Amino acid sequence: MLVRCALACLLFTSIAFTETSEDPAVVYARRIIVGEKTYRPTAGYVPDSETAVLIATAVLTPIYGKADIDAEKPWHTGLKAGVWTVVGTFNGKGEGGEAMVQVDEKTGAIIFVGHTM
Predict the structure, then answer these.
(1) C-beta of residue 91 within 8 angstroms of C-beta of residue 98
(2) pLDDT digits (tens, 9 = 90+) for 10-66
(3) Which among 35, 47, 77, 114 counts the fewest CB atoms within 10 Å?
(4) How far out from the chain centre does Cα 28 lie?
(5) In this structure, are residues 87 and 99 in contact, taking their beta carbons and an 8 Å threshold?
(6) Would you place residue 117 in the very low, low, confident or very high pLDDT band (cuts 50, 70, 90)?
(7) What is the CATH number of the domain that holds 80?
């Protein structure tokens, strides 16, 4: 029983240490951010279509893979009511359809992610 307790303590300590052994720069940043007012660009975090495409492809790549997302160039964008809509192009590769992402202009939040077909 004592051995089990000792092993449990050792396991817990190693798990706790692993979860808290983060990059010191990240730990420092988290500490100084508390209570600070964030910088908000006047035009929002997503001021133009180029930025909207960069965000959309960053979100889509882990989901569908770099090759599939690269194959959807050129990207089509439109801004309406503070929301960027980014749509890929079906270039006759793969099974078809286009990736679609909506991004909030002011905050950069992802509102929608999907793919036709």
Answers:
(1) no
(2) 555 555 445 568 899 999 998 999 888 889 999 999 999 999 999 999 999 999 999
(3) 35
(4) 22
(5) yes
(6) confident
(7) 3.10.450
Rounded Cα–Cα distance for residues 68 and 58 (Å): 13
**Do residues 109 and 69 share a domain?**
yes
Q: Do β-strands 110-115 and 76-80 pair in parallel, antiparallel, or remain unpaired?
A: unpaired
Helix (H, G, I), strand (E, B) or coil at 103: strand
Amino acid, single-letter form, for residue 76 = H
Distances (CA, A) of 92 to 65, 68, 73, 95: 17, 11, 12, 8
Q: Which domain holds residue 98?
A: 49-115
How many structural domains are present in the chain? Answer: 2
Tokens 């002011």 correspond to: 106
